[in-house]
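Batch manifest, entry 17 of 40.
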Amino acid sequence: MSSISKLSRRKFVKSSALSAFAFQVVPSRVFGANERVAVAGIGAGGKGASDIAGAKGAGADIVGLCDVDAGRLNGAVKKYPGAKGFSDYRKLFDELGKSIDAVTVSTPDHMHFHAALTAIKMGKHAYVQKPLTHSIWEARTLTLEAAKNKVITQMGNQAHAGEPIRRAVELIRAGVIGKVKEVHAWTNRPIWPQGVKNALPAQEIPKSMDWDQWIGPAPMRDYNAGYAPFKWRGWWDFGTGALGDMGCHIMDMPFWALDLKHPSAVEAKQRGNSIHSGPNKSIVTYTFPEGKYNHKMPYVWYDGGHMPEASVFEGTIVNPSNAKKFDLIIIGDKGKFLFNRNSQKWKTTPEDLIESADPDKTIPRVKNEDQEWIDAIRGVGSEPLSGFAYSGPFTETVLLGNLAVRLGKRIEWDGPNLRATNVPEAASIIKRKYRKGWEV
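Output type: C-alpha coordinates
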Protein backbone atom coordinates (compact mmCIF):
# COMPACT_ATOMS: atom_id res chain seq x y z
CA MET A 1 0.00 0.00 0.00
CA SER A 2 1.35 3.43 -0.90
CA SER A 3 1.96 6.12 1.74
CA ILE A 4 -0.81 8.16 0.09
CA SER A 5 -3.26 5.28 0.50
CA LYS A 6 -2.26 4.83 4.14
CA LEU A 7 -2.75 8.53 4.84
CA SER A 8 -6.09 8.63 3.03
CA ARG A 9 -7.37 5.59 4.86
CA ARG A 10 -6.29 6.88 8.28
CA LYS A 11 -7.88 10.28 7.71
CA PHE A 12 -11.02 8.77 6.22
CA VAL A 13 -11.65 6.38 9.09
CA LYS A 14 -11.26 9.27 11.51
CA SER A 15 -13.60 11.59 9.61
CA SER A 16 -16.19 8.85 9.06
CA ALA A 17 -16.40 8.29 12.80
CA LEU A 18 -18.14 11.62 13.25
CA SER A 19 -21.77 11.05 14.19
CA ALA A 20 -24.21 13.37 12.43
CA PHE A 21 -26.75 12.72 15.16
CA ALA A 22 -24.57 13.96 18.00
CA PHE A 23 -22.04 16.29 16.40
CA GLN A 24 -22.65 19.86 17.54
CA VAL A 25 -21.58 22.54 15.14
CA VAL A 26 -18.76 24.92 15.99
CA PRO A 27 -18.64 27.54 13.22
CA SER A 28 -15.29 28.80 11.97
CA ARG A 29 -16.24 32.25 13.22
CA VAL A 30 -18.83 33.34 15.73
CA PHE A 31 -21.85 35.19 14.35
CA GLY A 32 -23.71 37.89 16.23
CA ALA A 33 -27.40 37.48 16.96
CA ASN A 34 -28.45 39.55 13.93
CA GLU A 35 -25.44 38.93 11.69
CA ARG A 36 -26.10 37.30 8.33
CA VAL A 37 -24.02 34.72 6.48
CA ALA A 38 -22.35 36.14 3.34
CA VAL A 39 -22.73 33.65 0.48
CA ALA A 40 -21.34 33.51 -3.05
CA GLY A 41 -23.10 31.38 -5.67
CA ILE A 42 -20.96 29.49 -8.20
CA GLY A 43 -23.31 28.50 -11.00
CA ALA A 44 -26.13 31.04 -11.12
CA GLY A 45 -28.54 29.58 -13.69
CA GLY A 46 -30.62 26.43 -13.75
CA LYS A 47 -30.42 24.60 -10.43
CA GLY A 48 -27.96 27.23 -9.25
CA ALA A 49 -30.69 29.85 -9.31
CA SER A 50 -32.85 27.88 -6.88
CA ASP A 51 -29.88 26.99 -4.66
CA ILE A 52 -28.91 30.65 -4.34
CA ALA A 53 -32.54 31.59 -3.68
CA GLY A 54 -32.66 28.85 -1.03
CA ALA A 55 -29.66 30.27 0.80
CA LYS A 56 -31.19 33.76 0.57
CA GLY A 57 -34.49 32.46 1.93
CA ALA A 58 -32.67 30.83 4.83
CA GLY A 59 -31.30 34.21 5.89
CA ALA A 60 -28.04 34.56 3.93
CA ASP A 61 -26.81 37.66 2.10
CA ILE A 62 -25.82 36.96 -1.52
CA VAL A 63 -22.64 38.95 -2.09
CA GLY A 64 -21.00 37.23 -5.08
CA LEU A 65 -22.17 35.39 -8.19
CA CYS A 66 -20.32 33.39 -10.81
CA ASP A 67 -21.46 31.89 -14.09
CA VAL A 68 -19.66 31.20 -17.37
CA ASP A 69 -22.72 32.41 -19.31
CA ALA A 70 -23.03 36.18 -19.29
CA GLY A 71 -26.78 36.09 -19.82
CA ARG A 72 -27.38 33.93 -16.77
CA LEU A 73 -24.89 35.93 -14.74
CA ASN A 74 -26.45 39.27 -15.62
CA GLY A 75 -29.89 37.97 -14.75
CA ALA A 76 -28.68 36.82 -11.35
CA VAL A 77 -26.93 40.12 -10.62
CA LYS A 78 -30.17 41.97 -11.38
CA LYS A 79 -31.98 39.73 -8.89
CA TYR A 80 -29.31 40.30 -6.23
CA PRO A 81 -28.13 43.87 -6.92
CA GLY A 82 -25.70 43.89 -4.00
CA ALA A 83 -23.74 40.97 -5.45
CA LYS A 84 -20.73 41.27 -7.73
CA GLY A 85 -20.59 39.03 -10.82
CA PHE A 86 -17.71 36.96 -12.21
CA SER A 87 -17.26 34.46 -15.05
CA ASP A 88 -14.33 32.71 -13.29
CA TYR A 89 -14.83 31.47 -9.72
CA ARG A 90 -11.09 31.82 -9.06
CA LYS A 91 -11.35 35.57 -9.64
CA LEU A 92 -14.36 35.65 -7.32
CA PHE A 93 -12.26 34.14 -4.54
CA ASP A 94 -9.33 36.46 -5.29
CA GLU A 95 -11.50 39.54 -5.00
CA LEU A 96 -14.17 38.57 -2.46
CA GLY A 97 -12.41 35.85 -0.49
CA LYS A 98 -12.16 37.88 2.70
CA SER A 99 -15.77 39.00 2.64
CA ILE A 100 -17.61 35.71 2.07
CA ASP A 101 -18.42 33.02 4.61
CA ALA A 102 -19.81 30.30 2.35
CA VAL A 103 -20.45 29.20 -1.23
CA THR A 104 -23.03 27.25 -3.16
CA VAL A 105 -21.66 25.17 -6.05
CA SER A 106 -24.27 24.31 -8.67
CA THR A 107 -22.25 23.76 -11.83
CA PRO A 108 -22.08 20.72 -14.12
CA ASP A 109 -20.67 17.71 -12.25
CA HIS A 110 -17.13 17.99 -13.63
CA MET A 111 -16.63 21.41 -11.98
CA HIS A 112 -17.96 20.60 -8.49
CA PHE A 113 -14.68 19.40 -7.05
CA HIS A 114 -12.36 22.22 -8.11
CA ALA A 115 -14.69 25.00 -6.99
CA ALA A 116 -15.60 23.33 -3.70
CA LEU A 117 -12.02 22.36 -2.86
CA THR A 118 -10.84 25.93 -3.40
CA ALA A 119 -13.56 27.23 -1.07
CA ILE A 120 -12.94 24.64 1.64
CA LYS A 121 -9.19 25.23 1.69
CA MET A 122 -9.97 28.92 2.24
CA GLY A 123 -12.12 27.98 5.24
CA LYS A 124 -15.42 28.67 3.47
CA HIS A 125 -18.49 26.58 4.21
CA ALA A 126 -19.78 24.73 1.16
CA TYR A 127 -23.10 23.58 -0.26
CA VAL A 128 -22.57 21.42 -3.36
CA GLN A 129 -25.21 19.98 -5.65
CA LYS A 130 -25.48 16.21 -6.08
CA PRO A 131 -23.60 14.18 -7.00
CA LEU A 132 -21.00 15.69 -4.74
CA THR A 133 -18.25 15.12 -7.31
CA HIS A 134 -17.52 13.71 -10.75
CA SER A 135 -15.08 11.01 -9.58
CA ILE A 136 -14.76 8.68 -6.59
CA TRP A 137 -11.38 10.08 -5.57
CA GLU A 138 -12.77 13.60 -5.60
CA ALA A 139 -15.55 12.60 -3.18
CA ARG A 140 -13.01 11.12 -0.75
CA THR A 141 -10.79 14.17 -1.02
CA LEU A 142 -13.60 16.67 -0.32
CA THR A 143 -14.70 14.60 2.69
CA LEU A 144 -11.20 14.69 4.16
CA GLU A 145 -10.60 18.37 3.40
CA ALA A 146 -13.95 19.43 4.88
CA ALA A 147 -13.13 17.60 8.13
CA LYS A 148 -9.59 19.01 8.17
CA ASN A 149 -10.76 22.59 7.68
CA LYS A 150 -13.76 22.27 10.05
CA VAL A 151 -16.25 23.79 7.63
CA ILE A 152 -20.01 23.25 7.51
CA THR A 153 -21.01 21.31 4.42
CA GLN A 154 -24.15 20.09 2.68
CA MET A 155 -24.80 18.09 -0.48
CA GLY A 156 -27.90 19.08 -2.40
CA ASN A 157 -30.10 15.97 -2.18
CA GLN A 158 -33.07 17.91 -0.88
CA ALA A 159 -35.33 15.11 0.39
CA HIS A 160 -32.67 14.07 2.92
CA ALA A 161 -33.91 16.98 5.04
CA GLY A 162 -37.59 16.04 4.69
CA GLU A 163 -39.93 14.17 7.00
CA PRO A 164 -40.51 11.08 4.78
CA ILE A 165 -36.85 10.06 4.66
CA ARG A 166 -36.10 10.91 8.29
CA ARG A 167 -39.15 9.03 9.56
CA ALA A 168 -38.42 6.04 7.32
CA VAL A 169 -34.86 5.85 8.68
CA GLU A 170 -36.28 5.68 12.23
CA LEU A 171 -38.75 2.97 11.22
CA ILE A 172 -36.16 0.81 9.47
CA ARG A 173 -33.71 1.12 12.36
CA ALA A 174 -36.49 0.23 14.81
CA GLY A 175 -36.81 -3.08 12.95
CA VAL A 176 -40.37 -2.70 11.65
CA ILE A 177 -39.58 -4.74 8.51
CA GLY A 178 -36.92 -6.85 10.19
CA LYS A 179 -33.34 -7.21 9.09
CA VAL A 180 -33.08 -6.13 5.46
CA LYS A 181 -32.10 -8.65 2.78
CA GLU A 182 -32.69 -6.77 -0.53
CA VAL A 183 -33.08 -3.21 -1.82
CA HIS A 184 -34.33 -2.25 -5.30
CA ALA A 185 -34.35 1.37 -6.58
CA TRP A 186 -35.29 2.76 -10.00
CA THR A 187 -35.68 5.89 -12.13
CA ASN A 188 -37.04 6.78 -15.55
CA ARG A 189 -33.86 8.77 -16.32
CA PRO A 190 -32.06 9.47 -18.60
CA ILE A 191 -34.29 12.12 -20.14
CA TRP A 192 -31.33 13.56 -22.07
CA PRO A 193 -29.25 11.91 -24.84
CA GLN A 194 -27.10 8.94 -23.80
CA GLY A 195 -25.66 6.05 -25.72
CA VAL A 196 -23.94 8.47 -28.13
CA LYS A 197 -21.01 6.85 -29.91
CA ASN A 198 -19.03 9.89 -31.06
CA ALA A 199 -18.15 13.40 -29.95
CA LEU A 200 -20.37 16.10 -31.49
CA PRO A 201 -19.27 18.38 -34.36
CA ALA A 202 -18.08 21.91 -33.72
CA GLN A 203 -20.60 24.73 -33.57
CA GLU A 204 -20.11 28.43 -33.07
CA ILE A 205 -19.61 29.27 -29.40
CA PRO A 206 -22.36 31.58 -28.13
CA LYS A 207 -20.99 35.09 -27.58
CA SER A 208 -22.33 35.05 -24.04
CA MET A 209 -20.39 31.92 -23.04
CA ASP A 210 -16.82 31.49 -21.76
CA TRP A 211 -16.33 28.01 -23.21
CA ASP A 212 -12.82 27.54 -21.82
CA GLN A 213 -14.14 28.13 -18.30
CA TRP A 214 -17.11 25.83 -18.91
CA ILE A 215 -14.73 23.01 -19.93
CA GLY A 216 -12.55 23.66 -16.88
CA PRO A 217 -10.60 20.53 -15.84
CA ALA A 218 -12.20 18.27 -18.48
CA PRO A 219 -10.51 17.47 -21.81
CA MET A 220 -10.96 20.32 -24.27
CA ARG A 221 -13.43 19.77 -27.10
CA ASP A 222 -15.34 21.94 -29.54
CA TYR A 223 -18.52 23.60 -28.36
CA ASN A 224 -21.84 22.01 -29.32
CA ALA A 225 -25.30 22.76 -27.93
CA GLY A 226 -25.56 19.02 -27.31
CA TYR A 227 -23.20 19.53 -24.36
CA ALA A 228 -24.24 22.82 -22.79
CA PRO A 229 -26.20 24.20 -21.10
CA PHE A 230 -28.24 21.06 -20.24
CA LYS A 231 -27.31 17.86 -22.07
CA TRP A 232 -23.88 17.47 -20.47
CA ARG A 233 -25.20 14.86 -17.99
CA GLY A 234 -24.97 12.06 -20.56
CA TRP A 235 -21.30 12.70 -21.44
CA TRP A 236 -18.64 10.99 -19.30
CA ASP A 237 -16.26 13.95 -19.51
CA PHE A 238 -18.82 16.25 -17.86
CA GLY A 239 -21.60 14.26 -16.22
CA THR A 240 -22.29 11.04 -14.37
CA GLY A 241 -25.33 9.79 -16.25
CA ALA A 242 -28.68 8.70 -14.86
CA LEU A 243 -27.08 6.96 -11.88
CA GLY A 244 -25.06 10.01 -10.84
CA ASP A 245 -27.99 12.35 -11.39
CA MET A 246 -30.70 10.43 -9.53
CA GLY A 247 -28.86 7.88 -7.38
CA CYS A 248 -27.97 10.47 -4.74
CA HIS A 249 -31.71 11.10 -4.38
CA ILE A 250 -33.34 7.71 -4.70
CA MET A 251 -30.69 5.48 -3.09
CA ASP A 252 -30.33 7.80 -0.10
CA MET A 253 -32.83 6.52 2.47
CA PRO A 254 -31.68 2.85 2.60
CA PHE A 255 -28.01 3.86 2.53
CA TRP A 256 -28.65 6.06 5.57
CA ALA A 257 -31.12 3.81 7.38
CA LEU A 258 -28.93 0.70 7.11
CA ASP A 259 -25.78 2.63 7.98
CA LEU A 260 -24.11 1.22 4.89
CA LYS A 261 -20.42 1.72 4.30
CA HIS A 262 -18.46 0.31 1.37
CA PRO A 263 -19.93 -2.35 -0.92
CA SER A 264 -17.70 -5.35 -1.40
CA ALA A 265 -18.49 -5.64 -5.11
CA VAL A 266 -20.51 -4.10 -7.94
CA GLU A 267 -21.47 -5.29 -11.42
CA ALA A 268 -23.59 -3.86 -14.21
CA LYS A 269 -25.67 -4.79 -17.23
CA GLN A 270 -26.09 -1.93 -19.67
CA ARG A 271 -27.03 -1.00 -23.20
CA GLY A 272 -25.51 1.78 -25.25
CA ASN A 273 -22.49 2.81 -23.19
CA SER A 274 -19.54 4.22 -25.14
CA ILE A 275 -16.21 5.81 -24.32
CA HIS A 276 -17.96 9.18 -24.67
CA SER A 277 -21.43 8.69 -23.28
CA GLY A 278 -23.38 6.82 -20.63
CA PRO A 279 -25.76 3.94 -21.42
CA ASN A 280 -29.36 4.22 -22.59
CA LYS A 281 -30.35 1.90 -19.75
CA SER A 282 -28.61 -0.11 -17.07
CA ILE A 283 -29.01 -2.41 -14.06
CA VAL A 284 -26.33 -2.03 -11.42
CA THR A 285 -26.03 -4.52 -8.55
CA TYR A 286 -24.04 -3.57 -5.46
CA THR A 287 -23.21 -6.25 -2.88
CA PHE A 288 -23.03 -5.03 0.72
CA PRO A 289 -21.63 -7.06 3.61
CA GLU A 290 -23.79 -7.87 6.61
CA GLY A 291 -24.38 -5.01 9.05
CA LYS A 292 -26.42 -4.19 12.11
CA TYR A 293 -29.60 -3.59 10.11
CA ASN A 294 -29.02 -5.79 7.05
CA HIS A 295 -27.97 -9.23 5.94
CA LYS A 296 -25.32 -9.55 3.26
CA MET A 297 -27.46 -8.22 0.47
CA PRO A 298 -27.84 -6.93 -3.09
CA TYR A 299 -28.75 -3.28 -3.60
CA VAL A 300 -29.99 -3.08 -7.19
CA TRP A 301 -30.32 0.09 -9.28
CA TYR A 302 -32.41 0.28 -12.46
CA ASP A 303 -32.61 3.11 -15.02
CA GLY A 304 -33.68 3.85 -18.59
CA GLY A 305 -36.96 1.97 -18.25
CA HIS A 306 -35.65 -1.13 -16.50
CA MET A 307 -37.68 -2.21 -13.46
CA PRO A 308 -37.40 -4.91 -10.80
CA GLU A 309 -38.98 -8.26 -11.64
CA ALA A 310 -42.68 -8.57 -10.84
CA SER A 311 -41.90 -10.87 -7.89
CA VAL A 312 -40.29 -7.95 -6.06
CA PHE A 313 -43.64 -6.12 -6.09
CA GLU A 314 -45.75 -9.07 -4.91
CA GLY A 315 -47.87 -8.09 -1.93
CA THR A 316 -47.34 -4.33 -2.31
CA ILE A 317 -50.59 -3.85 -4.28
CA VAL A 318 -48.51 -2.23 -7.02
CA ASN A 319 -48.05 -3.54 -10.53
CA PRO A 320 -44.55 -2.75 -11.80
CA SER A 321 -46.06 -1.28 -14.99
CA ASN A 322 -47.93 1.24 -12.82
CA ALA A 323 -44.99 2.14 -10.60
CA LYS A 324 -43.94 5.78 -10.50
CA LYS A 325 -40.99 7.20 -12.38
CA PHE A 326 -38.82 6.69 -9.30
CA ASP A 327 -39.23 4.75 -6.09
CA LEU A 328 -37.64 1.93 -4.13
CA ILE A 329 -38.58 -1.28 -2.35
CA ILE A 330 -36.84 -2.57 0.75
CA ILE A 331 -37.34 -6.26 1.56
CA GLY A 332 -36.80 -7.40 5.13
CA ASP A 333 -37.36 -10.57 7.14
CA LYS A 334 -40.83 -9.33 8.19
CA GLY A 335 -42.07 -7.91 4.88
CA LYS A 336 -41.69 -5.34 2.10
CA PHE A 337 -41.71 -1.56 2.21
CA LEU A 338 -42.48 0.41 -0.96
CA PHE A 339 -41.00 3.83 -0.16
CA ASN A 340 -41.61 7.23 -1.75
CA ARG A 341 -39.44 10.15 -0.66
CA ASN A 342 -42.07 12.79 -1.42
CA SER A 343 -44.88 11.54 0.83
CA GLN A 344 -45.68 9.13 3.64
CA LYS A 345 -48.41 7.28 1.74
CA TRP A 346 -46.31 4.16 1.78
CA LYS A 347 -47.35 0.62 0.88
CA THR A 348 -46.19 -2.47 2.74
CA THR A 349 -46.78 -6.16 2.86
CA PRO A 350 -48.26 -7.13 5.26
CA GLU A 351 -50.43 -4.03 4.76
CA ASP A 352 -50.33 -2.97 8.42
CA LEU A 353 -46.60 -3.55 8.83
CA ILE A 354 -45.79 0.00 9.94
CA GLU A 355 -49.22 1.42 10.83
CA SER A 356 -48.91 0.57 14.52
CA ALA A 357 -45.19 1.27 14.74
CA ASP A 358 -44.30 4.45 16.59
CA PRO A 359 -40.58 4.56 17.35
CA ASP A 360 -39.19 7.71 18.94
CA LYS A 361 -38.11 10.57 16.73
CA THR A 362 -34.35 10.45 17.19
CA ILE A 363 -33.35 12.47 14.12
CA PRO A 364 -33.53 16.28 14.18
CA ARG A 365 -36.29 17.84 12.07
CA VAL A 366 -35.52 20.93 9.98
CA LYS A 367 -37.41 23.31 7.72
CA ASN A 368 -35.34 22.37 4.66
CA GLU A 369 -31.74 21.64 3.70
CA ASP A 370 -30.92 25.31 3.05
CA GLN A 371 -32.07 26.33 6.52
CA GLU A 372 -30.22 23.39 8.05
CA TRP A 373 -26.96 24.50 6.40
CA ILE A 374 -27.25 28.24 7.06
CA ASP A 375 -28.35 27.71 10.68
CA ALA A 376 -25.40 25.39 11.27
CA ILE A 377 -22.98 28.00 9.92
CA ARG A 378 -24.45 30.47 12.41
CA GLY A 379 -23.96 27.94 15.20
CA VAL A 380 -27.66 27.12 15.53
CA GLY A 381 -28.66 23.44 15.60
CA SER A 382 -26.51 20.47 14.70
CA GLU A 383 -24.33 19.31 11.81
CA PRO A 384 -26.26 19.09 8.51
CA LEU A 385 -27.16 15.45 8.06
CA SER A 386 -26.16 15.39 4.40
CA GLY A 387 -22.84 17.03 5.15
CA PHE A 388 -19.77 15.59 3.47
CA ALA A 389 -19.07 13.17 6.33
CA TYR A 390 -22.17 11.33 5.09
CA SER A 391 -22.61 12.44 1.49
CA GLY A 392 -18.95 11.92 0.56
CA PRO A 393 -18.98 8.15 1.24
CA PHE A 394 -22.48 7.94 -0.21
CA THR A 395 -21.33 9.61 -3.44
CA GLU A 396 -18.39 7.21 -3.62
CA THR A 397 -20.84 4.30 -3.59
CA VAL A 398 -23.17 5.82 -6.19
CA LEU A 399 -20.29 6.59 -8.57
CA LEU A 400 -18.83 3.12 -8.09
CA GLY A 401 -21.75 1.84 -10.14
CA ASN A 402 -20.55 3.92 -13.09
CA LEU A 403 -17.14 2.29 -12.77
CA ALA A 404 -18.76 -1.11 -13.42
CA VAL A 405 -20.84 0.34 -16.27
CA ARG A 406 -17.88 1.94 -18.01
CA LEU A 407 -15.50 -1.00 -17.66
CA GLY A 408 -18.07 -3.73 -18.29
CA LYS A 409 -16.60 -5.84 -15.51
CA ARG A 410 -17.52 -6.96 -12.01
CA ILE A 411 -15.58 -4.79 -9.58
CA GLU A 412 -14.18 -6.27 -6.36
CA TRP A 413 -13.98 -3.17 -4.20
CA ASP A 414 -11.51 -2.19 -1.48
CA GLY A 415 -13.39 0.87 -0.23
CA PRO A 416 -11.00 2.21 2.40
CA ASN A 417 -8.20 2.33 -0.18
CA LEU A 418 -10.33 3.31 -3.22
CA ARG A 419 -9.08 0.34 -5.20
CA ALA A 420 -10.67 -2.15 -7.58
CA THR A 421 -8.61 -5.14 -6.55
CA ASN A 422 -9.32 -7.18 -9.70
CA VAL A 423 -9.39 -4.41 -12.32
CA PRO A 424 -6.23 -2.27 -12.25
CA GLU A 425 -7.38 -0.21 -15.25
CA ALA A 426 -10.10 1.26 -13.04
CA ALA A 427 -7.54 3.60 -11.46
CA SER A 428 -7.73 6.14 -14.30
CA ILE A 429 -11.51 6.52 -13.75
CA ILE A 430 -11.39 6.47 -9.95
CA LYS A 431 -9.04 9.46 -10.18
CA ARG A 432 -9.21 11.21 -13.53
CA LYS A 433 -6.45 13.21 -15.20
CA TYR A 434 -7.14 16.94 -15.37
CA ARG A 435 -6.52 19.31 -18.26
CA LYS A 436 -3.28 21.27 -18.11
CA GLY A 437 -3.63 24.23 -15.76
CA TRP A 438 -6.30 22.50 -13.66
CA GLU A 439 -4.13 19.92 -11.94
CA VAL A 440 -4.68 19.32 -8.21
